């Protein structure tokens, strides 16, 4: 008789295991990190949890639609190439672009939805669960569209059979000696704790997909084409290729996969550290933003109604810097998070691949897995993993008594770290005629000549070597000059006749005459004056680039700043 009765049940009914299996299921990941608002009304995204649960074949729901995976049909689990995420077939068909919706990773254009491989490990897990839960199983031989419910299971073929195909199976010359059990008898063989054993019993042979070879098992692996093949394929289409037995090749490739995983661990560590640094900067940026906003609010409260328009202007500048830095950091965090999720997904899938007993299908995916792991180091190739922006957002509180007198110079929003004010030449009619000096150690000084312009010359006389001075343009107005003057020039006598100066509009003046033009400078620029007496050359730099160069320099000279407008404000950077 072809149908052999199975052993008696071990004491656990197939209907008693539902509660046990339900406890084994793992809940799906949280979909998105929730946003929270700041007291100033700006949104901030919390840092991701770096201890995210790793993907597992026991995650039984699609992370996009939350539908439970099935072993066939539109909810069959499909693997996305490159990032190795698993979604259901229906969601895979509904993808609008070639990107993974979970980590935004690009899906290679050579793959279409029908090319996405089944997650065979998850399908085997589902099949085992269905058996233990006593669910109806459709016949594996019938057409998928009108398959009947199975009544028997062939232990040798690993196939479920309906009554019609069971009758044909036991009469067939090739299968009449197979061990065939009723579905109930087959399920009763296993205890709920034997769940893994049941999965292994559902590993059916992989048959060749080449037309005409469908009845032949794929027992070989072509290492050149990176695919499993049958005996006929090996002797015909792959006869000049390097191929080997499934088990032999799997053991060898298993070692190579271990090496690739270990190689990519360093990349994962670097990305995780960088993500942590970005999160720290974002948190500090948020705190500094709150602090700077409070400073601005405290000052604004002391100003009457006519200052409100100025307040809104300053706050918009503050928010612009905050949004700019936050946007860059959030973008970097998203890229790093996506890269990290992608690596973890690939690693998790590979670990499960290394533990599967279905070596045929595992090797059939070897090329995809290899390409996925080889792409990991490229995620951060030629990228600076340090935070793209710092956490600096500062509201500068200037001289409050002067601010009340001159509202247009009230406060300043900056994305740079605050500099210690060494010397600030500023227009002041009351100090007209005072011939003051400028150095990196002076406090605020004032100077006006007979035209009402504020001119300040450096205290240090430069006769040899090279001298550098940095000047911060806090606020620029008309007739603002930076440069040098000759040592024998007296401010009250009109030093503009004996100097080399660059005006805010880009005009270059030498000995009182305009000798050229350049790009000029504006508010928030930081200029560097370089006086090289040995080379007889004077240069002004901005952001490392030369704004102007004047040669044939005579000496001795001093740095020189002219403030021709009450709207100008300049700081000498120590």
From TrEMBL:
- Which ranges carry the B box-type domain? 203-246
* Coiled-coil portions: none
> What keywords are assigned to this protein?
Metal-binding, Zinc, Zinc-finger
PANTHER family reported in the protein's UniProt record? BONUS, ISOFORM C-RELATED, MEIOTIC P26, ISOFORM F
Q: Where is the RING-type domain?
A: 62-104
Keyword Zinc appears in the UniProt entry = yes
Q: Does the keyword S-adenosyl-L-methionine apply?
A: no
Q: Which organism is it from?
A: Guillardia theta (Cryptophyte)
UniProt-listed CDD domains: Bbox1_TRIM8-like (cd19802)
Which SMART domains did the record assign? BBOX
One family name in Pfam for this protein: zf-B_box
A GO molecular function for this record? ubiquitin protein ligase activity
Q: What is this protein called?
A: B box-type domain-containing protein
């Amino acid at each position: 008789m072809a149908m052999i009765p199975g052993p008696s049940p071990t004491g656990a009914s197939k209907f008693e295991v539902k509660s046990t299996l339900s406890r084994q299921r793992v809940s799906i990941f949280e979909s998105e990190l929730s946003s929270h608002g700041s007291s100033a009304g700006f949104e901030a995204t919390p840092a991701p949890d770096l201890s995210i649960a790793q993907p597992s074949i026991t995650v039984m729901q699609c992370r996009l639609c939350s539908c439970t995976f099935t072993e066939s049909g539109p909810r069959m689990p499909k693997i996305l190439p490159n990032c190795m995420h698993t979604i259901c077939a229906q969601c895979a068909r509904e993808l609008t672009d070639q990107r993974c919706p979970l980590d935004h990773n690009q899906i290679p254009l050579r793959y279409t939805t029908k090319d996405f491989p089944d997650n065979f490990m998850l399908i085997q897990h589902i099949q085992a669960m269905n058996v233990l839960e006593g669910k109806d199983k459709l016949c594996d031989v019938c057409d998928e569209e009108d398959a009947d419910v199975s009544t028997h299971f062939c232990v040798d073929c690993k196939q479920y059979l309906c009554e019609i195909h069971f009758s044909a199976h036991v009469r067939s010359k090739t299968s009449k000696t197979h061990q065939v059990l009723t579905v109930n008898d087959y399920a009763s063989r296993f205890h709920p704790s034997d769940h893994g054993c049941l999965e292994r019993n559902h590993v059916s042979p992989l048959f060749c997909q080449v037309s005409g070879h469908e009845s032949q098992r794929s027992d070989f692996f072509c290492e050149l084409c990176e695919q499993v093949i049958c005996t006929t394929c090996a002797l015909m289409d792959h006869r000049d290729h390097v191929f080997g037995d499934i088990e032999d090749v799997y053991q060898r490739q298993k070692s190579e996969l271990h090496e690739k995983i270990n190689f990519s661990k360093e990349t994962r560590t670097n990305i995780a550290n960088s993500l942590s640094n970005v999160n720290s900067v974002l948190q500090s940026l948020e705190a500094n933003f709150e602090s700077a906003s409070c400073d601005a609010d405290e000052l604004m409260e002391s100003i009457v109604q006519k200052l409100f328009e100025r307040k809104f202007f300053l706050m918009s500048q503050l928010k612009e810097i905050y949004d700019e830095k936050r946007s860059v950091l959030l973008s970097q965090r998203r890229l790093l998070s996506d890269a990290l999720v992608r690596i973890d997904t690939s690693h998790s899938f590979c670990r499960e691949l290394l533990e599967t007993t279905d070596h045929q299908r595992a090797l059939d995916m070897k090329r995809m897995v290899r390409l996925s792991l080889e792409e990991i180091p490229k995620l951060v190739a030629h990228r600076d993993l340090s935070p793209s922006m710092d956490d600096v957002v500062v509201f500068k509180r200037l001289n409050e008594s002067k601010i009340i007198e001159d509202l247009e110079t009230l406060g300043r929003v900056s994305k740079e770290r605050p500099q210690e004010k060494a010397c600030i030449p500023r227009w002041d009619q009351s100090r007209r005629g005072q011939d003051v000096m400028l150095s990196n150690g002076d406090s605020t000084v004032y100077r006006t000549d007979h035209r009402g312009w504020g001119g300040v010359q450096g205290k240090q006389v430069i006769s040899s070597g090279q001298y550098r001075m940095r000047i911060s343009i806090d606020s620029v107005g008309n007739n603002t000059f930076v440069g040098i003057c000759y040592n024998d020039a007296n401010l009250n006598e009109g030093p503009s006749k004996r100097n080399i100066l660059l005006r805010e509009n880009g005009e270059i003046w030498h000995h009182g005459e305009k000798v050229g033009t350049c790009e000029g400078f504006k508010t928030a620029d930081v200029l560097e004056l370089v006086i090289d007496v040995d080379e007889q050359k004077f240069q002004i730099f901005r952001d490392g680039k030369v704004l102007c160069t004047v040669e044939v320099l005579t000496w001795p000279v001093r740095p020189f700043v002219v403030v021709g407008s009450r709207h100008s404000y300049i700081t000498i950077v120590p």
